[in-house]
Amino acid sequence: MSPGLPGAVTPSMRARQICPIRSIFRHGGREHSAHRRARFAGSARWVAPGLCAGPLSCAPMTQRLIRSRNPSVLFFGSDEFACVSLRAIMGVCSVQGVVAPNTTRLPAPTFAVASGLRLYTGAPHCWDTLPKNVDVGVVVSFGHKIPDRVIGSFRYGMVNVHPSLLPMYRGSSPIQTALLDGVSETGVCVIEVASRMDSGRILSSRRVPVDGNDTYRSLRDRLAVVGSELLVNVVADVERAQRGAIQQGSAEGLRRATKLHSDHAAVDFETMSSDDIYRHWRAFYGFIHVHAAWRERKRLLLIEVDPPSRATDEWALPPGEFVYDMSRDRIIIGCRDGTHLAVAQLQVSTRKIVSAVAFAHGYHIPRRRLLSTDLLRDCTNRT
């Protein structure tokens, strides 16, 4: 094994391995399961296709500046969000390696090895053997606190891409928390890495609107691209970015984005309206499946959910009662305040995901056919 951290992997070991992750970043509005070739720094590598989707927009002047300086970078990251920034800086910086948590199954380290980059894994106390004399350390969705000695080892310190308008939503779940709060706008900041998490000076930022039907996955994808564009411009001239840096405002009274787990994705039809449950589903879609209590203490996972209907008396179901809508092929669930939820796909505990009609058949859900308002109006006019 080559010298370096425990678990260091050289490019020659797995440089041409097909990346095993199925990227959820879209190209042309579609998801692709096949892998294709992409070029980075003049070398052809196998990578997941979504991670290569579309060029980033950088001003020609910025690109010439980056090429002339060719700053060296050490990248710290783990997930799909990090992959987008890693891909962006690979074409314009000299990436000295990728530092990842102690696993090679995460998207960022897998992508790094497939792209021929040196991979370092291990606990922070093993980081004494990281590359020296590197210009900038880049942290994107890393999930671990960086020791001060590591921050100070880079010529220009370290920068972090954070998907919120800091100091709002400091913490590990800013995208999910913003969706849970129902905000109409969020954003991305590139900040200096400081001793205290997410508290460094802001080097660059951009506001991003939130659509009413955005999910964690769709919003994450957009924020990842915006963050990578900001990052490229910051590392192009770190000194200039640092001269224009601003301090974060006070975080007192602002919502923190605490670490989320499965219990946070639980919903209750008795106490939550359809709007509440749909907001939860949007916030966790692509992260954790929203679930509710089901028969015999089982969990019912809501896989695909429709936006709530505005007609509160359309079904008039008591909270927690299920019917199968034969007209739309949906399971209709009564919720609080006379509202209802339409679900297209469900899953009970560890069983497979099924359609609404299969769920209705397997669990003997009553069937109804609801005439639409327009059809009822037509019938009335004809009489």
Automatic annotation (TrEMBL):
Formyl transferase C-terminal domain: which residues?
260-363
Q: Where is the Formyl transferase N-terminal domain?
A: 132-235
UniProt keyword Ribosomal protein, yes or no: no
This entry carries the following GO cellular component terms, namely: mitochondrion
Q: Which of UniProt's keywords are assigned here?
A: Mitochondrion, Protein biosynthesis, Transferase
Q: What class of enzyme is it?
A: transferase
On the tree of life, the source organism's domain of life is Eukaryota
Read off the CDD domains from this record: FMT_core_Met-tRNA-FMT_N
Q: Could you cite one Gene Ontology molecular function of this protein?
A: methionyl-tRNA formyltransferase activity
Enzyme Commission identifier(s): 2.1.2.9
Q: Indicate whether Transcription regulation appears among the record's keywords.
A: no
InterPro entries (alphabetical)? Formyl_trans_C, Formyl_transf_N, Formyl_transf_N_sf, Formyl_transferase-like_C_sf, Met-tRNA-FMT_N
Into which family does the record put it? Belongs to the Fmt family.
Q: What is this protein called?
A: methionyl-tRNA formyltransferase
